[in-house]
Amino acid sequence: MYTITWRPLWRVPLNVENAVRTAVHAAAAETAARLGASDVPTAQDAVNAALGRLPRRAPDYCLLNVHAALGLPSAAQELLAQQAADKQRINRLRFLKDHLYDHPDLVVLDQLEHYAPGALGDEHVAELQRLARLICSCDRWWFPLLQQWEQVGRGFTDIEKRQQAMVVLSDSLKALNGGSLPSGIAAVDISGSDGAPRRAHP
Fold this sequence. Notes:
Blueprint: E1 2-8, H1 16-32, H2 40-52, E2 61-68, H3 74-99, H4 106-113, H5 122-153, H6 159-176
Antiparallel strand pairs: 1-2
Helix pairs in contact: 1-2
C-alpha cells in the first residue's frame, strides 16, 4: 500500500495520477525483487529508502512525500515460515551427512537439539550419555582398526576376499584378547541362514 502526496504542475495531462503511481510502484518493485519475502520489516525499510531517493520533481508533477506499507497474508506467512524451517533442517542434515563419519558424536548433539532444556526424562538422558560414551570409546580404538581394515580391503577386488579379511581381523582381535572378542563386539558372520555369503559389518 502506498501513501503518496504529490502536486501537479500547470497544464498537465489527465492521466498524471497514473504516471505518479507507475513511477512509485516501479521503484518499489525493483527494490523488493532483490529482497527475501519472509523478512517484511527489512523489505519495507529498503523500499521506503528507495522511494525516498526518487526525484522530487518530474516533468508533470512534484512528488512531496511517499511511503510504502508492505504486508503478507497469513497463509503466505505460514508457508514462508515452513519453507525457512525446512531449509534449515536440510542444511543441518547435509552438515551431519558430511561430518557424521568423522564425528559420529554429532548424532547425540542432534538428538539433544530437538528438545528444550529439561524436556528429556532421566532415562532418555542416561541413554544418550551411554551412547556418547560408547561412541567416544569406539572412536579411540575401533575407528583406527576400521581404517586399517579399509586399507587392507582396498587390496582385494573380490568381495568374498574382503569378507575373509574381516574374518582375519576378527580372529586377530580374539587372539589379542585371549581367545574371545572384546566385550560388546559380536562375532563376525559372513554367511546367511542358507549358506550364501553376505556382507559383514563390525
